[in-house]
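[step 3/7] inverse_fold.run input=structure_tokens len=299
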């Protein structure tokens, strides 16, 4: 059994397995910790394990390396890259800074280490509103997700948010029509929406939140049925943590790169201790500042 081999290898290697809520169900089941980007970043910064196997995409494993530079951080599938993170470059951020001098760069963690090095503070979807509210200046440059940036602007009207036109293809594919159809099929269900979705989809939500926010709402609500407007992997986590409640995904809500890490690739990565994330020490030093500011702000 692959799961048993993973358990044995994990002990031999003094490794911890971190998995994002969008990972494959069987990957979530072998992980030591399953969570959102913020929770995983905190776990990565606090673990005593020598090896971190990150079941997610490139920017998540890079963040773990930046926060725990002395550890061996492994991304089992080198090709697992976030399409949104690829939409932004350091040069683009520098140009935005030149256009809006004095504005702070608040960067979604869904970005490369090189981009993080250009940011003043990072955020995740769990704390983006709190982070933007907390910065001392009146103007912020928000990269790379325009939908999350628009949502933040709606919640923090006292600040001017300059947007970057990036997006998550998986969340961008949700339409208001799809959500309306799901509501017709499940009239008693609450609609829980991730803020990477388009504004017109967010407008139909009973609650907007990160994957952990969605989980907390599902656990605390008296409602028994929920329409989940985020990546499909979240439904597995919800069904495990809230048995007895029903969760309906929107058809087609799959991020292909989040599904690349499999049990087989975890076994291989633990055996070979690779592919390892390598980042230049100078880059780590620069990218660490905005990430640590974010971890200090918390949820
Ligand atoms: S779901 Fe979207 S933001 Fe998340 S890893 Fe996939 S492409 Fe990137």
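[step 3/7] decode complete -> sequence:
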């Amino acid at each position: 059994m692959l799961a048993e081999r993973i358990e044995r290898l994990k002990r031999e290697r003094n490794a911890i397995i971190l998995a994002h809520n969008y990972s494959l169900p069987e990957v979530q089941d072998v992980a030591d910790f399953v969570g959102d980007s913020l929770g995983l970043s905190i776990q990565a910064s606090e673990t005593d394990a020598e090896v971190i196997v990150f079941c997610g995409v490139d920017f998540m494993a890079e963040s773990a390396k930046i926060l725990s530079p002395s550890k061996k951080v492994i991304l089992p599938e080198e090709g697992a890259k976030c399409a949104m993170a690829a939409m932004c470059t350091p040069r683009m951020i520098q140009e935005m800074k030149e256009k809006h001098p004095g504005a702070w760069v608040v960067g979604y963690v869904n970005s490369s280490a090189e981009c993080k090095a250009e940011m003043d503070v990072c955020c995740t979807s769990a704390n983006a509103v709190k982070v933007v509210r907390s910065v001392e200046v009146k103007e912020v440059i928000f990269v790379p997700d325009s939908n999350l940036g628009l949502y933040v602007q709606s919640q923090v009207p006292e600040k001017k948010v300059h947007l970057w036109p990036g997006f998550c293809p998986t969340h961008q594919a949700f339409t208001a029509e799809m959500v309306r159809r799901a509501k017709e099929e499940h009239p008693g269900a609450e609609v829980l929406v991730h803020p990477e979705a388009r504004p017109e989809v967010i407008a139909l939500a009973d609650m907007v939140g990160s994957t952990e926010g969605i989980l907390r709402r599902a656990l605390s609500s008296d409602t028994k049925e929920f329409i989940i407007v985020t990546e499909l992997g979240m439904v597995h986590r919800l069904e495990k943590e809230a048995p007895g409640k029903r969760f309906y995904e929107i058809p087609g809500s799959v991020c292909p790169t989040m599904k690349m890490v499999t049990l087989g690739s975890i076994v291989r990565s633990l055996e070979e201790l690779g592919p390892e994330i390598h980042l230049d020490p100078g880059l780590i030093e620069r990218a660490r500042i905005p990430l640590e500011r974010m971890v200090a702000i918390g949820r």
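[step 4/7] annotate
The mean pLDDT is 96.
The two ends are 38 Å apart (CA to CA).
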